[in-house]
Amino acid sequence: MKYKKVHSILEIGTLGGYSTIWLGRSLPADGYLISLEANPTHAEVARGNIARAGLSDIVEIRLGRALDTLPQIAAEGRKFDLIFIDADKPSNPDYLAWALKLSHRGTLIIADNVVRNGAVIDAASDDSNVQGIRRFNELLAAETRVSATEIQTVGSKGYDGFAIAVVTGDI
In this structure, which CATH number among 3.30.1780.10, 3.40.1360.10, 3.40.50.150, 2.30.30.100 belongs to the domain 8-167? Predict the structure, then answer.
């Protein structure tokens, strides 16, 4: 499979715009990034940070719940080269479904916080974040149109990880 340079990015979960800025800096001058943020305060802070980073021309922050905004993006007919999921963890299974709808062969899907200090293997956990990630992992593992792996990270905040999937089949 031949891969092309990332031109379009969808980010689900903006917070202060840190990841948004790093992702935006990777884009060519004619690229674009749409970031979805539910919290108006977070969106305002991120817009300021993005402006200071000189990325306002290629980054758009859309305010609203991602599960409300994603159907609007789909209605626009957009497809993305990279989709980064880092929002409310109970909704990650739904975000994966939307990521697949907004993908094409070769799209890279990355999801953050999929290890949760190892809590995802605790079958007795009733934490909604853990349950959302566990269901996301199950769906990702069963998805035949992607090739995926998860990588554990270790740092000052403990250990966590991220999932990386490339769309290999027709969507």
Answer: 3.40.50.150
